Amino acid sequence: MKIYLLDDDTNVIRILKQIIQDRGLGEICGACTSAEDTLDDIQRIRPDVAIVDLLMPGIDGISLVRTAREHWKDTTFIMLSQVSSKDMIAESYDSGVSFYIQKPINSVEVEHVLRNVAQSLEYRDTYRKMKKLFSDMEQQVTAAPETDAAPSGKDPACRERASVILRSLGILGKSGSQDILNILDFMIEEPETAAGMTLLEVFAHCSDDPAKSVAQRVRRAITAGLTNLAHIGLSDYNNEVFLEYAGTLYPYEMVRREMNRIQGSRVEDDRNNIRIRNFLNNLLSFVTVK
Fold this sequence. Notes:
Layout: E1 2-6, H1 10-22, E2 27-32, H2 35-45, E3 49-53, H3 61-71, E4 76-81, H4 86-95, E5 97-102, H5 107-143, H6 156-168, H7 175-189, H8 191-195, H9 199-206, H10 211-235, H11 240-245, H12 252-262, H13 276-287
Parallel strand pairs: 1-2, 1-3, 3-4, 4-5
Helix pairs in contact: 2-3, 5-13, 6-7, 6-13, 7-10, 9-10, 10-12
């Protein structure tokens, strides 16, 4: 994992380098004290992670992240600041920041955040591979629909990991959670068959109930998870569940709007826009990582 550092205080850069190197958290691919030079560096180096100071002369961290995210979507940005204002932190997240580290630097927090980032990058890469695999499988099924694929078999460990995630989101007891687990079993056992089906066909395959009833249960469960995750974020931005699943299981922008809605802001209610298949694919990528 290539890590780039930006802070106008050279002592902060030195401390971060020491923590990252001593704990084997990644490779330092660059460091800078100037935001203007950092944009050029990011374009040239394409780091996996950039740790950016919030308050700097010239271009502030939020403005830099907004500009950088327009061009380099694959770089994960971590904001570094002693500012504790929830509004400022929220603005940082809105700009495209994925994680937040408070100053003064705490080595335990730095390690925790960077290990979370590494895991998120692994999930992202796995999801992309799974998405490509499903796309390729769907093309194969379309081209040769009579070809039978051997099932891969159930994996109890995957089901257990999925149960842990649903429990973390507070929805394991929801009726739709059992449907979600059954659907994941099917996607793992028969990926080619699942990839060639519509969602309603998948629902019908995985339950004796009408497909539309299954769809309603699943949507309600996923929506409840979004609301619970937003409440967690409002209580504690640094909560492990929030950091792990906001921006992975659910699009961060959707989580952010749900947080604003809960606080009474007049924002678009995204809950009806939840993409069930995207959620299932994202969850699949979590549970199939070895």
